[in-house]
Queue: 2 jobs
Job 1
Amino acid sequence: MASQFSTSVLWLTLALSVVCNAATVQQQPRAAVPAGYVAAPYYPTPHGGWAASWNQSYAKAAALVGQMTLAEKTNITGGSGIYMGKPPLNTHSMNLYVPCVGNTGSALRLGFPQLCLQDSALGVASTDNVTAFPAGITTGATWDKSLIYARGVALGKEFRGKGANVYLGPTVGPLGRKPLGGRGWEGFGHDPVLQAVGGALTIKGVQEQGVIATVKHLIGNEQEMYRMYNPLQPGYSSNIDDRTLHELYLWPFAAGVRAGVGAVMSAYNAVNGSACSQNSYLLNGLLKDELGFQGFVMSDWLSHMSGVGSALAGLDMDMPGDQQIPLLGTSYWKYELTRAVLNGSVPVDRLDDMVTRVVAAWYQMGQDAGFGPPNFSANTHDKDGLLYPAALISPSGQVNWYVNVQADHYTVARQVAQDAVTMLKNNGSLLPLQTGTSGGGGLKLSVFGTDAQVNPDGPNACGNRACNVGTLGMGWGSGVADYPYLDDPITAIRKRVTNVTYYNTDSFPNVPAVGVDDVAVVFITSDSGENSFTVEGNHGDRDASKLAAWHGGDDLVKAVAGKYSNVVVVVHTVGPLILESWIDLPSVRAVLFAHLPGQEAGESLANVLFGDVSPSGHLPYSITKSATDLPDSVATIRTPVGLDLLGQVQDTYTEGLYIDYRYLNKMGTKARFAFGHGLSYTNFTFTNASIKSVTQLTATPPPRGQKGATPAYSTSIPPASEAYQPSGFSTVWRYLYSWLSKSDADSAYAVGAAGTSKYPYPTGYTNTQQSSGMVAGGGEGGNPALWDTAYEISVQVTNTGTKYSGKAVAQAYVQFPAGIAYDTPVVQLRDFEKTDTLAPGGTQTLTLTLTRKDVSVWDTTVQNWVVPGVGERFTIWVGEASDTLTVGCYTDSLACQAGLQPPV
Ligand SMILES: *[C@@H]1O[C@H](CO)[C@@H](O)[C@H](O)[C@H]1NC(C)=O
Ligand SMILES: *[C@@H]1O[C@H](CO)[C@@H](O)[C@H](O)[C@H]1NC(C)=O
Ligand SMILES: *[C@@H]1O[C@H](CO)[C@@H](O)[C@H](O)[C@H]1NC(C)=O
Ligand SMILES: *[C@@H]1O[C@H](CO)[C@@H](O)[C@H](O)[C@H]1NC(C)=O
Ligand SMILES: *[C@@H]1O[C@H](CO)[C@@H](O)[C@H](O)[C@H]1NC(C)=O
Ligand SMILES: *[C@@H]1O[C@H](CO)[C@@H](O)[C@H](O)[C@H]1NC(C)=O
Ligand SMILES: *[C@@H]1O[C@H](CO)[C@@H](O)[C@H](O)[C@H]1NC(C)=O
Ligand SMILES: CC(=O)N[C@H]1CO[C@H](CO)[C@@H](O)[C@@H]1O
């Protein structure tokens, strides 16, 4: 997603774009995609509407679309242009103000409004009176399904309250393949199941509020550098083999489609050399056929680069509407799509399917009734402002109503931040800190690091949070929201301890003599974000800082540890860091990863530090001892090589399934802290495990069912008059309209009617709907049988401590049978559950579920999910982390054993 710029930047962008446009270079891949990776043609786009859960919405949508003119249809599938909000006042009576990061056109004659599409995945972006929730990575670190869902509900309420139709989240791609990748923190962790659960429950929570969720970015957007196509250089190509795509990167998208997600956003980059916004195999084949996606696909902002080609390849909505060089009033769609339908190049049924998908999603969320118009502007915080900021001359009017949508959502935000705090070390039980006499008089605390206190210029001082000053609560870029406030750690600590000395510096200062019982808390950070901004030399990805703490944080820890013998390190970070230079120092007694807590950074941490609650977060990624513990393809950011500086960067997923813990386990490399690791103030046991076979498995799932009916669309080209711009209509310069002049419409129609001038269709193109579809499809998310419960595992979790209450997480990992014909990672996460708060001695039975898909591999030959070795011994391991799995349940004997040697 693109970001909001100040007006001056906006004009600079315009000036630059005029200059750049002079060189209209066609992007060509200049470095070859490695042999074996192909972007196969897949045509046509399967019509939506055949899934039973959408059929009512499709029936209504088809009825509405059936009344639309050509220009109304192409209005809805494209944005009005970046920074283009309110439509011209003279066109209609419904005077909507649509000031979001993306605004579609409308068909007001039929009551279909402009849709407001708004960032971000962690809160309503660029406006006030909202909650700045913890980031995705923090949410994933809770390993708590009910909290993930509760955050989704609260997010949905806030988007709805501001009048945003479409929530541009959740992010499940990047998956976190590259620890240095800039946007991994927007998602839930470096594992497909953690991402799938995080994404699906967020979608459910958001969409139950009547807001369309957007699962993004499809697919392989694992680094920020060179992600975008521009007139001089194509975006990088993520070259991903079929099995890896299915078993890792597509997995969370399948779960999102299964959850009924209304929208998908395509990624900036290419896959196998073909840009995601026009990759027919990806959009038509995998997403709409195999995964049975019924909603609409939008382009990431300014990633759209063709007109006819993307329509045929399965793109349904062009965002924000402009060509790659924005603000010129030109579009690949809108009026051009109108032309392409009239001249016969884009089949009418493809356009009808596009627009019906959009309108069906609107009905599916119930937005046809009682959904108010937006009451905020993403462009300004002032009450009054320009109605079309991108126009040369724009009228002004009220643009912000300051509707407060926060309700009590700080409680769920704080709970997520608190339950995500992950304790990695606690030697000699330094934590929780004992405040001694009442009021904290007995504890003498020294706090170090600028991260403990909010940025003195305010938490929103840097636009798009593109700086790392003060408490780090979120990364930077479009995936942010404005803080209504930032409860910082130092404030929360001072509320509990009287004798606090705060050294607001990242360099070790002179300190007075230190007593043996004195405690030091050191705050360090690591930040990253979107490529549109460079922060302290990092181009979105952590290409400059690498995996070291920012601002010399590692040296600060070492210096403090040289003076104090009781040091607690608190880390606010987007992802893993290398901790080796200090983790084993005897005086570094405790380490807490607080991730990116959002607005509730203070109390959530203090509750853990001072023992109101036990820490219960677990790492959503592995922390390695060295960056080179991961393969080179994963550990580095891809850059152009040699003389081919302008060529397409090839990022080939040579490691296949082996990322994060999957790779470390394969190589037998011990992580410093394994995926899933997290300590508590108390201890838990896992006992009385049992396993139940629920569905009798066969090697492949039962054959998919037939598709339901889809709306019947005409294929005859509509009259040119449906595209005529109304006479006397006064346009706003650079606003994107779907009409053509009469002469343009007539001449395009003449081309289409003659049928002689053929569009150079891609190889493999056809417009005949396929009745069968891919073998692995059949429902939303794929063959419904894939989601049958195969096994249920129960385990009794008991708090065996005597002093502290706490919550435990049970993680279930599958180990495939030995000797099967497929190479599989030693263990792979498949489900997890968290207990309620268990008092000392308290116990709770948790149930973990494995579906047929969870015990399958993707077979590239049969193009289906295959259970390798039906009847053989799969081991379902259960434990508190990926490296402490001592309870194993066997699928052949249906017995479970405790006290086993962990598989890794
Ligand atoms: C990429 O290429 C591989 C190898 O040919 C193929 O299996 C896979 O399906 C391709 N992916 C896409 C999205 O085209
Ligand atoms: C919708 O699907 C349900 C369940 O398959 C079916 O009974 C119903 O007839 C369908 N309705 C339409 C309008 O297709
Ligand atoms: C397209 O949408 C814009 C913005 O709402 C509106 O002004 C215009 O009238 C619409 N065009 C058509 C053909 O309805
Ligand atoms: C936003 O506020 C405006 C003005 O008070 C109101 O008309 C509109 O219905 C509100 N929108 C929503 C979604 O509540
Ligand atoms: C139809 O119009 C589209 C959009 O301008 C253009 O790309 C395409 O080449 C045209 N087709 C023909 C056959 O002229
Ligand atoms: C803090 O502790 C130091 C050393 O024990 C002591 O000298 C000082 O008076 C204390 N300050 C407060 C405010 O209690
Ligand atoms: C938890 O168990 C470990 C290993 O048995 C033990 O060293 C530790 O003291 C226990 N911690 C608590 C809080 O009971
Ligand atoms: C509760 C809250 O944050 N209210 C704010 C809503 O927005 C207006 C305008 O920015 C502020 O003045 C309020 O403080």
Job 2
Amino acid sequence: MEPLITRRAWLEIDLDRMAQNLAEVRRRLSPGCKVCGVVKADGYGQGAVMMAKRLAREGVDFFAVATLLEGKELRDARITGEILVLSYTDPSLTSELLACDLIQSVSSPEYAAALDEAARAAGGRLKAHIKLDTGMTRTGFDCGTPEELDRVAVACRLPGLKITGTFSHFSSSDDGSEGADEYCLRQLERFTAALDGLASRKISTGIRHICNSGGIQKYPQAHFDMVRCGAILSGYPTACHVGAWPDIRPITSLKTTVTCLREIEPGTCVSYSRTFRAPKRMRVAVLPIGYADGYPRALSSKGRVILHGRWAGQIGRVCMDQMMVDVTGIPDVRLGDTAVILGGDGALFQNADEVAAQAGSCMHELLSRLGPRLQRLYFEGGALVKVL
Ligand SMILES: *Cc1c(COP(=O)(O)O)cnc(C)c1O
């Protein structure tokens, strides 16, 4: 049966472009350095399964997700590569981790002990990556002193755990703020020192990894055995202030349809709470997308869309399911016309990082909050291959 395409508001996801982005990353890695495809939060809102399947076809055999259920979703879709669960899984669910052959990241002595006990009780050995805190101060073993490293070593020797990797995470690799570089390099030093300390304790650290997208771009010396590619696969070299990765391009467009058009008189109030009052005669188009779809309400009277290759400013409060744009200067706008919210039309384009910045956010948040009502249309070889 032909899939139903409602044309209400939808994402167009170009998987070939994602493969190109992957190739651009790989081109800059040392031989032997693996790519981990980070597809947490449903692949940053773009569909973890479709992305992972294509990445697997491109030879990626390592994935990262945030949660147990995200890992299980990939397994149910017959993704066979390694899957690292980045955040906490309750130890009572260890048998699920084992059943799905997932790698759990382990971030403290207590958590390691609990997982070890649960794994042995389940009669298994749980694959794990040791997470070291080098300055993010979120999760991870402290590893700055010999005593702290001893505690990491104890965790690594637990019989219920099989340590296949050791990793850390940069806090500031994609911001250009004062001191960010020094901070990252300090984290890198701490990571290297901890790896050395573990080696001197005869601990096999397995696959070593610390780079996210920003780190990949900025610190080739930090690539180690694997790099974790999230945003960059979606086309966002997040350390954009360092420039020079122009061949990485966004894979996703967000589009919607004009569903209503009206002329309004000067003084007419538009949308909830009358925050916008027409300063002149205007032509207004209604778009059926709102904050329930992940379009930030913070963009009320600030955002803009592209219609007929021209900018149309959003006016009044963004509603739950709809919003209004000013099409006064744009000739021939008709019911059913397509408006581009992310992506390009003619000479104009806007991407998730720019739109997010306007809303005081980042592309990670904007994409990952794109809601389930938006249909996902996948393209490969120029053809529509799947609608979700
Ligand atoms: C999300 C995440 C990544 C990917 O980050 P990007 O900046 O999107 O590449 C890598 N590592 C960890 C631990 C993460 O949580």
